[in-house]
Write a structure and sequence with these properties.
Elements: E1 2-6, H1 11-22, E2 26-31, E3 45-48, H2 53-63, E4 67-70, H3 84-105, E5 109-115, H4 130-147, E6 152-158, E7 160-162, H5 171-181, E8 185-187, E9 193-194, E10 196-198, H6 199-215, E11 224-226, E12 233-234, H7 235-246, E13 252-254, H8 283-292
Parallel strand pairs: 1-2, 1-4, 2-3, 4-5, 5-6, 6-11, 7-10, 8-13
Antiparallel strand pairs: 9-12
Length: about 300
Amino acid sequence: MKILVTGATGFIGQNLIKHLLNQDHSLVLLVRHNSDISILDNRASLFYYSDEINNLITLFQKELFDGVIHLASLFLATHQSHNIPNLIHSNIQLGTELLEACKLSKTSWFLNTGTFWQHYENEVYNPVNLYAATKQAFEDIAKYYTETSDLIFTTLNLNDTFGPNDTRNKVFNLWYQLTQTGATLQMSPGEQIIDICYIEDVINAYEILINHLKMNPNDVKNKKFAIHSNERMSLKKLSKVFENTIGIPLNIEWGKRSYREREVMIPWKDTQPLPGWKPKYSLIEAIQKTIGTMK
């Protein structure tokens, strides 16, 4: 298929792009002029997005994409007032312009990426923060486009992810750095439950959903799916699994930091699982594969 992908330079984007190209899909990556394209697979084509919706519509009408995979977003755990325009532009305006282009070019499907943080305290909708609120706002806008066109819209909800070559400031990276430096890390009491998925399992979920969109689109139309770890546990217990896996103790001072405002203590549970998906790797196997690339 011919697919437009946003968020190409992100951790999930880089891994998904490589996987899709290996399956002989034709990809166009939406990037900005300040994006680091050196990290992108050169088998894909690039389209430089410059906030001109007419150029985007022209691209869609020229390429006649089968679908869009929308990974791009601006994540901020907490925001400042000056962040609001960028949050709205990145998480609402860009997606809406893509939907408009899809409608005008009769693109078949749109695979959106959502977040568990739209469901604080396991509610149908309760945003943890403004970031989550903008993600929900975009999904609400998409309802208009699915009602006024034949576009198939579906969302894959993710929580935490990890894997090799992840440059994000995520917990496994922080903990591995402790083992190398011997430094001490102050953390919260660590009772929050962690639901974290390995990147190869995440990519498999996207592949399954893309296949549904191609072969059985009505089965996923206007639906939200989620993927979960089979090994949910507290952050403190997760640190012990990490320690035992790599054989090096972590110097963590638990309870030295407060939980942040609206800390997610129990990740979203009332989700619709993705049919045909289950994790391929155990947590220990995934940690071993990840740490192996850091040495």
